[in-house]
Amino acid sequence: MELKVTPTIKGIGVSPGIAIGKAHVIEKQKTVLTGQLLDNEDAIQIEMDKYDLAVSKSIEEVELLIAQADETVTAESLEILETHIEFLSDPQIRVDVLEKVSTERKIISDALIEVITKLVGMFQAMTDGYMRARAADVQDIGDRILKNLGLPVSASNHSIEPGSILIAEDISPSDTIAIDIKNVAGFATQTGGPTSHAAIVAKARGIPAAAGCGINLSHIRTGDLLILDGLTGEVILHPDHETLTLYISKKEDYLRKSTLMKALKNVPSSMVDGRPISLVANISEAADMDQVFENGGEGVGLLRSELLFMGRDSFPGEEEQFDFYKKVALKSQNKPVTIRTIDIGGDKQLHYFGLPQEQNPFLGYRAIRISLDRKDLFIVQLKAILRANVFGDLRIMFPMISNVQEIREAKKVLEAAKVELINEGTAFNPDIQVGIMIEIPSAAVMADILAKEVDFFSIGTNDLVQYTLAVDRMNEKVSALYDPFNPGVLRLISNVIEQGHKHNIHIAMCGELASDPLATLLLIGMGLKEFSMSAVSIPFIKNIIINSSFSEAREVYLKVNEMSDSDEIKAYLKTLLPI
């Protein structure tokens, strides 16, 4: 007898929880090139007039979406729609389209398709997850313009049944506003990752979601029965009775635990033997602070300052940056906020900066390397942070440090920023802690040397794992090799924590490993006392902490330290998770 196997599609879990329901497929009709060419000069202006009218209509549509948004629309969706208006207004896109129309004599729709396709490809090739996720935004605005040029670009039906699981190549801000989000039980997308729009919306609404599921997701049809596990990223198609029963039980258990988690908001994050563990959040702007405190967070372990520099036409000046950091400080309730200085370059392109194209952008001109090369820009950011420090407990963190010279040079620029503010007679708080990201293996190996130069370390596991294992986790050919539980990675992390304690500096972790329940006791056993993560993950990690002791965590670390196989390590750590 042939064994029946329930098909399982594996993606990336981007919002925890379990959804069981029927699929609703959002289909986008692919536009194709016609190959038509213009036959005279007069047609060029006619085509560009069509383009300008379509862009104007597109901007009006997005503005109407924003104006008509109700309480079900997340702030994140509205912010991304604002970014769409900036994309639509980008003169460079028009210049590129005009070039194809005037030089290559292409009709306007073909010219736009080629420009958008090239731009989407550029974003998709970036190694930074946030920037890669913006490819969907570019495609969305391209589709909107094409629609207003008269091309059919969408065959989706946004009238969905309650309890549906949305299936799509990707889900745009336009999609999430057009659909009734109350009827959505889960999201699953072929592309994207933790920073895609679908993931952002799902996390904000507490909806289970998986991204990066690949082409296999295209086999699902509207009406198919699905199970979606937002923690593991698995999508199970046509589950059999036994699988369905198992996941119904898992879903009930998750919902029960989620209710209990919410009750932990005001419970101190301390182990049963009294050892305090600080749980803070990774954020992008002041508006994110509300969610931090709603989930019981104690501050901010990572403010991604580079997002202030994106989606615009020029560098923000000192006053604009000061206002940005001041807003965060005022909303922080005087809790600590660690600001990572600008981390752009290579994969995070700013079109107005003119950064060079690089063969290996992740190993190139980016982060602290740009800041130290362009001290004129760096000192503006540091002055703005120092001024905003008057309004809260801000801290400065330098990214991508690989040697001690970089730290010393960065601190010299910080001192120069203080001198400039003094000479200007501008109020600021000079007492500010300075730390570094440990995300390059060289920094982890010589943590004992670097610890003498700074007030704190924050371990960025996302890059540390990729650099240590030479693995791009978004490359499906090698992503299975991306493994934060590799003993080599764990040894580097342990060394950083050990050296930090020896030199009496504060140690935190702000990479994804900090929010992985499998790693919680292991990291505490290594001596880690601060975990920074997405705000929605805080209650789940807190629940592990308040039900465990440091002696238990230490025992976990000692056992893992004797293991040589990451599969063995993960299997053991899974036995420790609450059932």
From TrEMBL:
Keywords (alphabetical) are: Cytoplasm, Kinase, Magnesium, Metal-binding, Phosphotransferase system, Sugar transport, Transferase, Transport
Molecular functions (GO terms): kinase activity; metal ion binding; phosphoenolpyruvate-protein phosphotransferase activity
Entry GO CC: cytoplasm
Subcellular location per UniProt equals:
Cytoplasm
Where along the chain is phosphoenolpyruvate bound? 304, 340, 462-463, 473
Q: Which GO terms describe its biological process?
A: phosphoenolpyruvate-dependent sugar phosphotransferase system
Q: Which residues form a coiled coil?
A: none
Indicate the segments forming the PEP-utilising enzyme C-terminal domain, all copies. 261-547
Catalyses: L-histidyl-[protein] + phosphoenolpyruvate = N(pros)-phospho-L-histidyl-[protein] + pyruvate
Provide the active-site residues from the annotation. 197 (tele-phosphohistidine intermediate), 510 (proton donor)
Kindly list the positions annotated as binding Mg(2+). 439, 463
List, separated by semicolons, the cofactors it needs.
Mg(2+)
* Enzyme Commission number(s) of this protein: 2.7.3.9
Question: Residues in domain PEP-utilising enzyme mobile?
Answer: 160-233
What broad class describes the main subcellular location of this protein?
cytoplasm
Task: Enumerate the spans annotated as Phosphotransferase system enzyme I N-terminal domain.
Answer: 10-134
Taxonomically, which superkingdom? Bacteria
Has the keyword Kinase been applied to this entry? yes
Q: Report the top EC class in one word.
A: transferase
**Per its database record, what is this protein's job?**
General (non sugar-specific) component of the phosphoenolpyruvate-dependent sugar phosphotransferase system (sugar PTS). This major carbohydrate active-transport system catalyzes the phosphorylation of incoming sugar substrates concomitantly with their translocation across the cell membrane. Enzyme I transfers the phosphoryl group from phosphoenolpyruvate (PEP) to the phosphoryl carrier protein (HPr).
To which protein family does this belong?
A: Belongs to the PEP-utilizing enzyme family.
**NCBIfam families in alphabetical order:** PTS_I_fam
Its recorded name reads Phosphoenolpyruvate-protein phosphotransferase
